[in-house]
């Protein structure tokens, strides 16, 4: 699954938990916050920025 988000939107989105910037993981269809360790789903092209909906990612 490949997902895209407009660059202008990605620039203004922030993690609701840490307020850190998000990066797009197109292949996973998620917005990832490296600071909080959360990945937010993108459903039907709409980012779901709810901490309860996010999954915890493994540190790299």
TrEMBL record:
User: What HAMAP family does the database record attribute to this sequence?
Assistant: UPF0434 (MF_01187)
Q: Which Gene3D superfamilies match?
A: 2.20.25.10
The UniProt entry's sequence similarity note says:
Belongs to the UPF0434 family.
Q: What's an example GO cellular component term for this entry? A: cytosol
- What protein name applies here? UPF0434 protein CLV63_109100
Query: Known Pfam families for this protein?
Result: Trm112p
Q: Which InterPro entries match?
A: Trm112-like
Q: Which organism is it from?
A: Murinocardiopsis flavida
């Amino acid at each position: 699954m490949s997902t895209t988000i407009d660059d202008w939107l990605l620039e203004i989105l922030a993690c609701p938990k840490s307020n850190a910037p998000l990066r797009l993981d197109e292949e996973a269809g998620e917005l990832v916050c490296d600071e909080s360790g959360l990945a937010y789903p993108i459903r039907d092209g709409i980012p779901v920025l709810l901490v309860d909906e996010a999954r915890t990612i493994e540190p790299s």
